[in-house]
């Protein structure tokens, strides 16, 4: 079953951010746009490249009113240890949520049960706490945060402009479409 259009399910977890531990719940995803980025595990290989790339786009995302949350099945203590020992991860300023109970990973349907690890899943959540996009990658395929920025801009545009849709490769300021009977078979 698709998670698109569903509200984020309840959870409570601990996260690491900027030298402190904080509690996070599904309520954090309301009132603003959110990106939730699941990854398999701390102290691995592809994961730090993705999380570092996400940090490189963090100021741009914040300027769009987006908060970022990374999630793995590690604990918040492990996130701190990784943050303290990795140059790339040490630059991260967004929340790193620990999910050792697998509750969040199950809620978002990214848990690899046999391994106790999360798939590479990216979710864009609107200010109502409703999931608008889902992207799942195989473990060996890293994600590109600049593509995520464009998806968020499109999601925000569609929310602000009911009745319009963003075509493939849409860029901010580009032409949109207004679905109607007149367009059927003409694109």
TrEMBL record:
Keyword list, A-Z: Antioxidant, Cytoplasm, Disulfide bond, Oxidoreductase, Peroxidase, Redox-active center
Keyword Cytoplasm part of the UniProt annotation: yes
Thioredoxin domain location: 2-157
Catalytic reaction(s) noted: a hydroperoxide + NADH + H(+) = an alcohol + NAD(+) + H2O
UniProt-annotated location(s): Cytoplasm
Single biological process term from Gene Ontology: cellular response to stress
InterPro entries, per the entry: AhpC (IPR017559), AhpC/TSA (IPR000866), Peroxiredoxin (IPR050217), Peroxiredoxin_AhpC-typ (IPR024706), Peroxiredoxin_C (IPR019479), Thioredoxin-like_sf (IPR036249), Thioredoxin_domain (IPR013766)
Function of the protein: Thiol-specific peroxidase that catalyzes the reduction of hydrogen peroxide and organic hydroperoxides to water and alcohols, respectively. Plays a role in cell protection against oxidative stress by detoxifying peroxides.
Family as reported in the entry's similarity comment: Belongs to the peroxiredoxin family. AhpC/Prx1 subfamily.
Quaternary structure note: Homodimer; disulfide-linked, upon oxidation. 5 homodimers assemble to form a ring-like decamer.
Protein name according to UniProt: Alkyl hydroperoxide reductase C
Natural source organism: Paenibacillus thalictri
High-level lineage: Bacteria, Bacillati, Bacillota, Bacilli, Bacillales
């Amino acid at each position: 079953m698709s998670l698109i259009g569903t509200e984020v399910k309840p959870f409570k977890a601990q996260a690491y951010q900027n030298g402190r531990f904080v509690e996070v719940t599904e309520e954090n995803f309301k009132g603003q746009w959110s990106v939730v980025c699941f990854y398999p595990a701390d102290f691995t290989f592809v994961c730090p490249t993705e999380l570092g790339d996400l940090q490189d786009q963090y100021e741009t995302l914040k300027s769009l009113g987006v908060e970022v949350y990374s999630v793995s099945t590690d604990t918040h203590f492990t996130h701190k240890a990784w943050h303290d020992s990795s140059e790339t991860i040490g630059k991260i300023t967004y929340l790193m949520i620990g999910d050792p109970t697998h509750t969040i990973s199950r809620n978002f349907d990214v848990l690899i049960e046999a391994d106790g690890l999360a798939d590479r899943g990216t979710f864009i959540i609107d200010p109502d706490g409703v999931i608008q996009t889902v992207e799942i990658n195989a473990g060996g395929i890293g994600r590109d945060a600049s593509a995520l920025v464009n998806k968020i801009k499109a999601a925000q545009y569609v929310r602000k402009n009911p009745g319009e849709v963003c075509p493939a490769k849409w860029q901010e300021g580009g032409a949109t479409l207004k679905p109607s009977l007149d367009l059927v078979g003409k694109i």
